[in-house]
Amino acid sequence: MNRAITISGLSGSGKSTLAKKISEYTGLRYISVGNIYRASCSLKELEDNKKIEKWDYKLDSLIQEGILNGELVIEGRTVGYIGNNLKKEGVEGITNLYLSCVPQVRLNRIIKRDKGSEKTLERDYRDVERFFKKYGVNIENSGLYDAVIDSSKTSEEYVFSLAKEEIEKYWRK
Asked: Tens of pLDDT along 62-79?
């Protein structure tokens, strides 16, 4: 059985940190959708919704293919939604996690990490709207995920321990 772990959440929620820890723990390959976007588009293009929508469709296909081929930890805003749809179609071996986090904590992490600003949070909310128009679903809807973990006031290690419990629970099935 293929194994795929999706980790979704908004900027600064801890997706990358958790995905790297899970990848190291499981030995599964790590993929960051955000890194693919940033490597493929300029910052100006990332701010242009029409250009980014073209990338959305290309990346959706790549994400789905990656999840179907399994043996990976993939993090990004929409990966859990795509993983959830595949599970509905009967694909096994997928664990979908969502990291929630209050905006002020996310902003502090973004500023510390890469000198980001409130514009990053604004882009997140535009993205949530864009994905709602595209998919007809709120990607922050907890019903899309096997587990929702609040990373606002907990350590990286504690978030990892909660995620590990969820993964092991689904892999035992």
From this structure: 888 888 888 899 999 889
Per-residue pLDDT tens over the stretch 112-162: 887 767 778 888 888 899 889 888 989 999 999 999 999 998 899 999 999
The SS3 assignment for 100 reads: strand
Q: What fold is seen in the domain 4-167?
A: Rossmann fold (3.40.50)
Cα separation of 139 and 8, whole Å?
8
- For 146-157, write each residue's pLDDT tens digit: 999 999 988 999
Quote the strand ranges of the chain, DSSP E. Answer: 4-9, 29-32, 72-75, 94-100, 147-150
Asked whether the CA dihedral 125, 127, 33, 99 is positive or negative, the reply is: positive
Report the predicted TM-score, pTM, of the whole model to 2 decimal places.
0.88
List the chain domain ranges.
4-167
Q: Is 87 exposed, middle or buried (0-12, 13-18, 19+ CB in 10 A)?
A: middle
Q: Answer yes or no: are the C-beta atoms of 146 and 96 closer than 8 Å.
A: yes
Find out whether 127 and 8 touch, Cβ atoms under 8 Å: no
Do 18 and 99 form a contact (C-beta atoms < 8 A)? Answer: yes
**Residue for token pair 């990848």:** 23
